[in-house]
Specification:
The complex is a heterodimer of chains A (about 300) and B (about 300). Chain A has about 300 residues and is α+β, with helices and mostly antiparallel strands. Chain A has helices at about 1-25, 100-110, 200-205, 245-255; strands at about 25, 50-55, 55-65, 70-80, 85-90, 110-115, 130-135, 135-140, 150-155, 160, 175, 180-185, 190, 195, 220-225, 230-240, 260, 270, 275, 290-295, 300. Helix content of chain A is about 15%, strand content about 35%. The longest helix of chain A is centred in the N-terminal third of the chain and has 23 residues, at about 1-25. With about 300 residues, chain B is mainly α. The chains are: A alpha+beta (about 300), B mainly alpha (about 300).
């Protein structure tokens, strides 16, 4: 009888150890495609400012009443692998003009933090011919030489090439021997390789998409790289700020290496755990649907 | 996207449309041989010109924004066509068929009107097979077919193509009821274009220049042209002759404001769309009133 009880006890302990080990999970590199990240470990809570698991840490903040004259939102993101910085279209392809809310797209792919992208299929005289490379696939091999080009390589490093005719000739699928996973054309770049871009360049209308009005106050969204696999997302709320102020704010918040402007205005959407957090107003609110998002996903799987 | 099913549905609808035209012409006293030839020619020319004009109008609308013409012919072609270009192509085909077969153009077009509206409806319903091409906004509270269609992620989007098809069927019924009117064809086109102004606004994917929806604008141009034509017909006899085209201009200006509000303001969409529909209903009233007045004038003459 004692032996039998001891055997049962041992089996129970072993099962406990096994289930504990299984719950530990693993961090796995995510595939370079349109699939999503690992399931989220926690649901959204308005009070939650940090999401953390062994593969990702996102710390968000909302700052109001600062010297910058507008409410702004920040997120500092650290990921374990570059594959966790991803993009997603509203439809099956980045060539579709289909749009939907960034929060809807974020939920599809278990995004920890998501922002609107560069509205890749917008039709204005510049965006219509912009370069579209997403999740390792070239969707549109044209180039708008009047806009800066942001390339994110397989190590998750940012490379910003300023507007220039040479953009048409260069290889945009490889940079410094690394494969480019995502490329964007909105901009301009506000900080490049740690150097701040001159005011005159930023405020020059020819370096922004039509209607972006770089010298006007508007809602803005930018993405920045601070260090290897360490990023910042910054957006400001209505009435917003001009792009020079946005650059200065980004540089004040962190020692950024590269900062690049994404679509702004009503497209600005800062989504944490599937919930849009910027510009939340009382009562009803219309949210502009967008064509694409950039997101950070968890790579921590417990199955 | 199921292109085969789409093309089959379009082909069957085109055949049914031509058969309808044949019977409508025959019932109007056109010889069977002449009516039959018209139907066959309409099927061939309508298919070719419908496609060619849909492509041409798309290229014309997008030309200011695209430097590389090759882009018009790359990848999927179905989303690089203009619906109203297709409509224009089929109308042009009907015009040519009337000329070729020697049937008076007005008479032919008036008989063709219900069949054309039927084809317009089927072309919209066939968008069911084109994935997201004919859908509207994401529906937060979910939905059900035919009000909404689900995508592969289980998200529901407003099935705008169904509404457009239903509006076209209403235009078809009106065309049948008013088949003897001398302006039946123009009025049918008017009632195809008018609801499109509203539906185009609901569509998620449309040919747009930033915030301007090109086909909505084209529909307004046609609607306004009809209202001007009816206004001019009653100019000499009615004090309020200018009301229809003035209403057209005002409602058009309001629509521009409403489109802006949909994108930029937090006014609930329901309110904005209610205003838009109210404006369009006013245009229906104006068209009906001015046409009846014009008919009275012409009958007295």
């Amino acid at each position: 009888m004692k032996k039998w009880l001891a055997f049962c006890l041992m089996i129970t302990i072993l099962m406990g150890i096994y289930s504990f080990a299984a719950a530990e999970g693993t961090v796995r590199k995510l595939p370079i495609d349109l699939s999503g990240g690992a399931p989220l470990q926690k649901n959204f809570d308005a009070k939650m400012t940090v999401y953390e698991d062994p593969s990702i840490r996102v710390e968000r903040a909302k700052v109001s009443g600062s010297k910058w004259g507008c409410v702004y939102y920040t997120a500092f993101i650290t990921i374990a692998d570059a594959s966790q910085l991803r993009t997603l279209p509203a439809d099956d392809t980045f060539l579709s003009k289909m749009t939907t809310k960034a929060s809807v797209m974020a939920k599809r792919v278990n995004a920890v933090l998501a922002t609107n992208g560069d509205y890749c299929t917008a039709i204005d005289t510049k965006k219509a011919s912009s370069y579209i490379l997403r999740q390792g696939v070239v969707y549109r091999d044209s180039i708008q030489t009047g806009l800066d080009l942001l390339m994110i390589d397989e190590d998750g490093n940012f490379h910003i090439k300023q507007a220039d005719d040479a953009l048409a000739e260069m290889d945009k699928t490889m940079i410094d021997g690394k494969r480019v996973i995502n490329a964007f054309q909105f901009g301009p770049g506000l900080v490049i390789d740690g150097e701040k871009v001159p005011d005159e360049y930023i405020l020059d209308y020819s370096h922004s998409p039509d209607f972006a009005q770089p010298d006007h106050k508007a809602q803005r969204m930018c993405i920045a790289q601070i260090d290897d696999l360490h990023y910042m997302v910054l957006c400001c709320a209505f009435y917003g700020m001009d792009l020079v102020s946005l650059r200065d704010l980004a540089m004040e918040l962190a020692p950024v290496k590269n900062v690049y402007v994404l679509d702004g205005g009503e497209s600005t959407q800062f989504v944490f755990l599937g919930t849009k957090l910027n510009n939340i107003k009382e009562g009803s609110q219309n949210v502009r649907p967008v064509t694409d998002i950039i997101y950070f996903a968890s790579a921590y799987f417990t199955d | 996207m199921d292109m085969t099913s789409y093309l089959v549905m379009m082909a069957v609808s085109a055949v049914v449309c031509c058969c309808m035209t044949f019977f409508l012409l025959k019932n109007d006293g056109i010889a069977v041989k002449q009516a039959g030839l018209s139907a066959v020619l309409l099927l061939v020319l309508g298919s070719v010109l419908g496609f060619v004009c849909a492509k041409l109008l798309y290229i014309m609308l997008m030309l200011p924004f695209v430097r590389d013409l090759g882009m018009f012919f790359q990848g999927s072609q179905i989303d690089k066509l203009s619906y109203y270009g297709g409509v224009a192509g089929v109308v042009f085909a009907a015009f040519l068929v009337a000329k070729i077969t020697g049937i008076p153009v007005r008479r032919f077009l008036n008989r063709f009107a219900p069949a054309g509206a039927f084809m317009a409806a089927m072309a919209r319903f066939a968008e069911f097979y084109l994935g997201t091409l004919g859908v509207g906004d994401y529906m937060e509270e979910g939905g059900f077919f035919p009000l909404a269609v689900a995508n592969k992620w289980g998200e529901y989007y407003l099935a705008v193509f169904i509404f457009e098809g239903l509006f076209s069927l209403i235009a078809m019924v009106l065309a049948f009821l008013h088949n003897r009117e001398k302006d039946c064809f123009v009025r049918t086109l008017f009632y195809l274009c008018l609801p499109q102004i509203f539906c185009e606004s609901l569509r998620n994917i449309s040919i747009s220049w930033l915030f301007v929806r090109a086909e909505q604008l084209l529909c307004y141009l046609f609607v306004e042209a009809v209202l001007i034509a009816w206004s001019l017909r009653i100019r000499g006899t009615r004090k309020q002759w200018y009301l229809p085209f003035a209403a057209g201009l005002v409602v058009c200006a309001l629509t521009v404001g409403e489109e802006f509000a949909l994108d930029k303001s937090d006014i609930p969409h329901v309110i904005t769309y209610t205003c838009m529909v109210a404006g369009l209903v006013l245009l229906v009233v104006m068209e009906h009133w001015s046409y009846r007045q014009a008919m009275q004038v012409s009958s007295k003459e």
